[in-house]
UniProtKB/TrEMBL annotation:
Topology term for the membrane: Single-pass type II membrane protein
Lineage: Eukaryota, Viridiplantae, Streptophyta, Embryophyta, Tracheophyta
Protein name: Fucosyltransferase
Species of origin: Herrania umbratica
Residue ranges constituting the Fucosyltransferase C-terminal domain according to the UniProt record: 216-397
Gene: LOC110419443
One Gene Ontology cellular component annotation held by this UniProt entry: Golgi cisterna membrane
Main location as per UniProt: Golgi
């Protein structure tokens, strides 16, 4: 017997109900539109659903190596690495060989006249680029005929007569105010005559560099501040109330005293060259998975030692500060707290990251894979290289003959 053909309406209804049954049974699944595009400003990690409460950083490194490794890391973050490596405007470039013809002097002497924190071991005779030498000193005996005076805490002379040294004034604070009397101005900002970032090793002069591979899993965050600014305190309080933490210093202290870090971590006191408790900040920080770093003032390019201390101590900074901070740090190395919609969202992310050794280790991949981005330029424009860069600026102006 010949079968009657099914009409179009019947076939359509059969296909529709079959599709509905498969979809609600979970056999078919469509990607969410909300998750299809991830903005650059948000975290991109896919954190494990099952917590892994690791306490040893080397364990995290081994798991990350087995699951990702440097090649995949560079491929995964290639767009971010390329973007941050090619940004310009936030950092001054070193004088290239092509600029050697702009130099008018083969030797420059800088005499430091007033200072507070410029370290003594910066005093030296430097061999700089383009065959130029630079004497940086605090001794008027060694610099009896300087080409420039450097003032940091005192104001330069009101007038400079012909044949006198150039007047250099440095202000690395957030306001970066000109004295109005200087010939050359040094600040943290690339727009000024000479830039000095906080990224160099000399900002850590005399510190105990012992770094522990142990990471405290019960107390996730390290916070230390002794300048209790109301706005910064309130911000820190809002986040820290959501996370287990140790608060050292005078502000929001919850450990029982300023020197408790050495009581918690006695191995940090083994360095006889660093007798004070604040000399052991790096060592103490290294025992925590995260360090909260909040700038005194939020302004462009003002990225201070608060952030770089955390990076150098082998931890992951949670940062609140300069809006262009990514121009100064390695790709995928910090958690920018301003990119989260709430403190609750940030705290949830930190907790999940603390229990995912692979995702956590990825924040350390930059140092293990040599992915520096603009961080290399930030260090090249730091206090470490300031003597040669200042001497080059003095030479371009002709020194005493300017």
């Amino acid at each position: 017997m010949q079968l009657k053909p099914l009409n179009t309406l019947t076939v359509t209804l059969m296909l529709f109900f079959t599709f509905v049954i498969l979809f609600f049974s979970g056999f078919l699944e469509f990607p969410s539109l909300a998750n299809s595009v991830e903005p650059l400003s948000k975290p991109t990690e896919s954190l494990n659903s099952e917590p892994d409460q690791f306490t040893d950083l080397f364990t995290a490194f081994k798991k990350w190596d087995s699951r990702m490794g440097c090649a995949q890391f560079k491929e995964k973050h290639k767009d971010l690495i390329h973007l941050l490596s090619n940004r310009s405007g936030s950092l001054q470039e070193a004088v290239a060989d092509s600029g050697c013809n702009e130099l008018k002097m083969e030797h420059v002497t800088v005499l430091v006249k007033g200072w507070t924190w410029i370290p003594d071991n910066l005093d030296n005779l430097y061999s700089c680029g383009c065959g130029m030498s630079c004497l940086w000193t605090k001794s008027s005996v060694l610099a009896d005929k300087p080409d420039a005076f450097l003032f940091e805490t005192t104001t330069p002379p009101l007038q400079r007569r012909s044949g006198d040294p150039l007047r250099v004034y440095m202000d690395l604070e957030a306001g970066r105010r000109h004295s109005g009397r200087e010939d050359i101005f040094i600040s943290y900002h690339a727009k000024d005559d000479v830039q000095s970032t906080y990224a160099g090793a000399l900002f850590h002069n005399g510190r105990n560099y012992h770094v522990s591979s142990y990471k405290n899993n019960d107390t996730l965050v390290y916070w230390s501040s002794s300048r209790c600014l109301p706005q910064r305190n309130q911000l820190a309080k809002r986040l820290l109330r959501l996370l287990p933490h140790h608060s050292f210093g005078k502000c929001l202290n919850n450990v029982g005293g300023l020197d408790m870090a050495l009581s918690f971590y006695p191995e940090c006191a083994n360095d006889a060259n660093a007798p004070k408790w604040w000399d052991h900040l790096h060592c103490a920080m290294s025992h925590y998975k995260f360090v909260l770093a909040i700038e005194n003032t939020v302004t462009e390019s003002y990225v201070t030692e608060k952030l770089f201390y955390a990076l150098d101590s082998g931890t992951v900074p949670i940062y609140f500060g300069a809006p262009n901070v990514l121009d100064f740090v390695p790709p995928h190395s910090i958690i920018d707290g301003t990119k989260f919609s709430s403190m609750e969202e940030l705290a949830s992310y930190v907790k999940a990251l603390a229990n995912d050794p692979v995702a956590y280790a990825e924040y350390h991949a930059w140092r293990r894979c040599g992915v520096l981005g603009n961080y290399a330029k930030a260090r090249a424009a730091s206090l470490d290289t300031l003597p040669c860069r200042l001497c080059e600026a003095v030479s371009r102006r002709g020194g005493r003959n300017a």
